[in-house]
Amino acid sequence: MQSPASVTGSIVRRIRAPAICARAWSVLSKEMGQPKWFEILQAVVAAMAPYARHGVNVNVDFYSGVVYHLLGIKRDLFVPIFAIGRVPRLGGAGARAARKQHPSASAHAL
Q1: Is the dihedral of CA 14, 20, 26, 31 positive or negative?
Q2: One pLDDT digit (tens) per residue for the chain, 110 residues
Q3: How far is 18 from 36, CA to CA, in rounded Å?
Q4: What's the chain look like in SS3?
Q5: Which of 23, 69, 78, 90 has its C-alpha lying 20 to 30 A from 108's C-alpha?
Q6: Which among 58, 64, 72 has a CA at the least distance from the CA of 25?
């Protein structure tokens, strides 16, 4: 069972963060002179709405590729940037969860 903090964090990421970030990304795309990107993403969000009841929701990462593009970051760096953003979670909470499931495993094996 998840702790209240992790459940709350998950809810925040799924509900509030995308809505808040969507407004910021809308402004960014307009300021960069490329509002089409945000419009495309919003069309995908609308098309995916029926699937939300099945747990398929837009999260913050959904918009990341467009933000990277608008900032001039090369495409071959998108995945490494995304992966680097996951390292703190994997190193912290993920390692704790793994140790809880396999207490005999050494920290070096995780």
Answers
A1: negative
A2: 444 444 444 444 444 556 677 788 788 889 999 999 889 988 988 888 898 888 887 777 778 888 889 889 999 999 898 888 777 765 666 666 666 766 665 555 44
A3: 18
A4: CCCHHHHHHHHHHHHHHHHHHHHHHHHHHHHCCCHHHHHHHHHHHHHHHHHHHHCCCCCHHHHHHHHHHHCCCCHHHHHHHHHHCCHHHHHHHHHHHHHHHCCCCCCCCC
A5: 78
A6: 64
Domain ranges of the chain: 1-73, 74-110
Give the pair of three-digit tokens for residue 55: 């747990």
